[in-house]
Write a structure and sequence with these properties.
Layout: E1 3-5, E2 12-14, E3 18-19, H1 32-45, E4 49-51, H2 60-69, E5 78-83, E6 85-87, E7 93-95, H3 99-113, E8 120-123, H4 132-145, E9 151-154, H5 158-167, E10 172-176, H6 188-195, E11 198-202, H7 217-220, H8 224-227, H9 236-253, H10 258-267, E12 273-275, H11 282-292, H12 298-307
Parallel strand pairs: 3-4, 4-5, 5-8, 8-9, 9-10, 10-11, 11-12
Antiparallel strand pairs: 1-2, 6-7
Length: about 325
C-alpha cells in the first residue's frame, strides 16, 4: 500500500486509515467484539493508522482500542486522538482549547487505550477567541514531554493552519473531503502540501453516499445526524442517489466497489492525502482497502470527474446546527 507521512518528520502510514467513530453507536450499534474484528482486519489489510477521539462514545471508542491492545505485547498502530469538545449542563456542546483541558483529556485518552503516547493529537474544534499560536505553542510542549508525536487541528481554515504552523509545524489537518465535499480544494489541500502536513480526509465516501449501498430516505431517518442533514432529505437525496448510481456503474466498469473507487480518487489527489473511512463491517472494510491498492490512470480520473463533476452534490454538508465549530473559509 502507498505510504503517507504524517507531518514533516512524523511516521509513514498506509494511505488508508480507519476512523474509529464507528466503534460508537453514531451510525448504528457497535460491539466490542465487532470492533476488535475490525482492528484485526485492519492489521491484515495493511491499515496501520487509527483515528479516534475522547468524545467518540464518550470514551467508548478508545476503550475498545485499549481492550484490543491489552491482548497484545505490542502496538502495531499509529494512533490519533482528539480533544476540545465538552458537553455543558444544558446538554449542548461547547469548545475548550485551554492547556488544562487539552492535557487532562489527553491523559484520559492515554489511560483508556493503555498507551504512553499517541502519534497524533488534534484540537477537535478551534475556539476563535483563543489565538491559535498560543494553542500551537502549548501543544509543542506535549511533544517535548513525549506524550504526542505531533499535533493537528480538525476543521480549520488554511489561514489558521498557516498561523499555527508559524509557531510549530503542524503534522496534520483533518477535514471532510470526498468526491461530494470538495471545498478543501479551495486552499486547504494546497496549504497542507506546501507546509508538509498530512491532509486527513474524514467521511471519504460521503457518509455512505459514494458506496454501492447508499442510505435510502427511510434508512437516513434512523440516524440522528443524517435525518436533518441537507444532503439526506428530499428533494436533495433523490437527486444525489441518481448521481451516485451513475458512479456505481462506473466503479463496476473499472472493476472496483464504489467505495473503493471513492478512496482511490481521494488518494490520487496528493501524496499527503490520507482518507480515514469508518465501517462496522469487515467486508465493507475490504471494499475500501481495494481502492487503496488501485492507482487510477489519468483517463480513469477523467471518467470519475465526468460522472461526478465538482459541485454535483445537492445540499450543504451540514445544517445550521451542525456548522457549530468548523471554520468556513470559502
Amino acid at each position: 500500500m502507498k505510504q503517507v507521512q504524517i507531518g514533516q518528520t512524523g511516521p509513514k502510514v498506509g494511505a488508508l486509515g480507519y476512523g474509529a467513530m464507528s466503534f460508537t453507536n453514531f451510525y448504528g450499534p457497535s460491539t466490542e467484539e465487532g470492533s476488535h474484528a475490525i482492528l484485526d482486519a485492519c492489521l491484515e489489510l495493511g491499515i496501520d493508522h487509527i483515528d479516534t477521539s475522547n468524545v467518540y462514545g464518550m470514551g467508548r471508542s478508545e476503550n475498545f482500542i485499549g481492550s484490543w491492545l491489552a491482548k497484545r505485547s505490542d502496538n502495531p498502530f499509529r494512533i490519533a486522538t482528539k480533544a476540545s469538545i465538552r458537553r455543558g449542563d444544558d446538554g449542548k456542546n461547547y469548545f475548550d482549547n485551554s492547556p488544562e483541558h487539552l492535557e487532562a483529556e489527553l491523559d484520559g485518552s492515554l489511560k483508556r487505550m493503555g498507551v504512553d503516547r499517541v502519534d497524533l493529537f488534534y484540537v477537535h474544534r478551534r475556539v476563535q477567541e483563543v489565538p491559535v499560536e498560543e494553542v500551537a505553542g502549548f501543544l509543542s510542549t506535549l511533544i517535548a514531554k513525549g506524550k504526542i508525536g505531533g499535533y493537528g487541528f480538525s476543521e480549520i481554515a488554511p489561514t489558521t493552519l498557516r498561523r499555527a504552523h508559524s509557531e510549530h509545524p503542524v503534522a496534520a489537518v483533518q477535514s471532510e473531503y470526498s468526491l461530494q465535499t470538495r471545498s478543501p480544494e479551495m486552499g486547504l489541500v494546497q496549504s497542507c502540501a506546501e507546509l508538509g502536513a498530512a491532509m486527513v480526509a474524514f467521511s471519504p465516501v460521503g457518509r455512505g453516499m459514494l458506496t454501492d449501498r447508499p442510505h435510502t430516505l427511510k434508512e437516513a431517518a434512523e440516524y440522528p445526524f443524517l435525518t436533518n442533514n441537507p444532503r439526506f432529505v428530499e428533494p436533495n437525496l433523490s437527486a444525489n442517489l441518481k448521481n451516485s448510481a451513475e458512479f456505481q456503474t462506473l466503479a463496476a466498469d473499472l472493476g472496483l466497489p464504489a467505495a473503493g473507487l471513492a478512496i482511490a480518487w481521494l488518494i490520487a489527489q496528493g501524496d499527503h492525502v490520507l482518507p480515514i473511512p469508518g465501517t462496522r463491517s469487515v467486508e465493507r472494510l475490504k471494499e475500501l482497502a481495494a481502492g487503496a491498492e488501485r492507482t487510477l490512470t489519468s483517463g480513469e480520473l477523467a471518467q470519475v470527474e465526468k460522472v461526478l463533476p465538482i459541485g454535483w452534490c445537492h445540499g450543504d454538508r451540514y445544517n445550521q446546527g451542525q456548522w457549530n465549530g468548523p471554520e468556513k473559509y470559502c
